[in-house]
Amino acid sequence: MHTISTKKDSVAPHEAAHPRVGPSVPPREPSASFFSTGRSGKRSSMQETQRLLERAVEAVGTGIVIADARRADYPILYCNPAFERLTGYSATEVMGRNCRFLQGPDTDPNTVRQIRAALEAGVECNAVLKNYRKDGTPFWNDLNLSPVRDAEGAVTHYIGVQTDVTAIRASEVEKARLLTDLERAADQQWEFLKDVLLTATEGRLRLCDTIADLPAPLDEFLLPIPLDEANLRTLRLRAEDAAVGQGVSEERWQDFVVAVGETGMNAVMHARNGTGEVRAGGGRVQVWVRDSGEGIPLHNIHRATLVRGYTTSGTMGYGFFLSLRMCDTLYLLTGPGGTTAVLEINAVPPPPPWVALL
Ligand SMILES: Cc1cc2nc3c(=O)[nH]c(=O)nc-3n(C[C@H](O)[C@H](O)[C@H](O)COP(=O)(O)O)c2cc1C
Fold first, then answer.
1. Which domain CATH number covers 326?
2. Host domain of residue 43
3. For the whole model, what pTM was predicted?
4. Residue 244 lies in a domain
5. Which residue's CA lies nearest to atom 6 of ligand 1?
6. What is the DSSP string of 121-182?
7. pLDDT higher for 45 or 286?
8. How confident is the model over 149-159, as pLDDT tens digits?
9. What's the structural domain count of the chain?
10. Are residues 110 and 210 located together in one domain of the fold?
């Protein structure tokens, strides 16, 4: 039987210079004695079951240790060969010691505290923590601790099962890193798309990230109307009235009304549940067209806005292509929750883009 020592741990694993014990740990005899009843002679079926259990624990690939819960500091009574292979310590070296010798500089003290609390409460506990082999190399230990109770319910032993999850952990860290890279690349792509479309439309198309990027709604307004093919005419007429009222020239409001009709039609064809709202004030008109359709996918936004005759629903109409050429500014907020397009026209036409170059 292994001798049980109450000797306190003193060797920090990362300081130890002994070579790691690999899979070639010499076969060992004594472990069987931990399980045996000590009685010889009759081979009862109970003894056979015990032998089977014993062989299973010896053969299993995960580390197993049994600690005495009745003695101070949970001294190890038994460890299986997989524990020896995992940690590099031999059974003889660990007998009687507390398992904390596996911890080192980067072991999370909070996790250790949780383990201590579970042991004090006599309950099961699971934790993943950084441990160190005898040669100092770190590994991630997925540790399960379960109490064993006697007939009176008192905890007599604790069984610890150690699984090396270093590789899984590394792939999770790598996955998280790749995901962050991917998100950053998508953000950069979106910013690039916004810049390109702003330039290609001479500053008219403003792709919005959030509601906050939409323009402040103008003060004078009529209640929104639900959009269907019949109501599109009402929306156009309201837009015309508002533009005339704000002093927009006839040539410009006529174009604007066409743009409003196209954008409204887009919502009708797309989502069939849009609303249209005309707002005005200070020599400016806004038409807000909202729908709760599935939005324009990112990879289609450049087509939906730049390509003549392209609509994401594959229907008639010019989509945003025409609208963009017939208003001063088109704000577009689109996503899975729907699309909001705001068309604006000013009584005073904006200066031509080449002015900015002077
Ligand atoms: C059966 C058993 C197995 C344990 N196995 C490990 C282990 O593999 N790695 C580890 O870091 N701690 C392990 N521990 C926990 C430590 O032995 C110790 O209980 C923990 O560090 C909390 O106590 P402390 O704050 O006094 O160190 C085990 C505890 C028991 C009872």
1. 3.30.565.10
2. 13-164
3. 0.60
4. yes
5. 99
6. HT--EEEEEEEE-TTS-EEEEEEEEEEEE-TTS-EEEEEEEEEE-HHHHHHHHHHHHHHHHH
7. 286
8. 999 999 999 99
9. 2
10. no
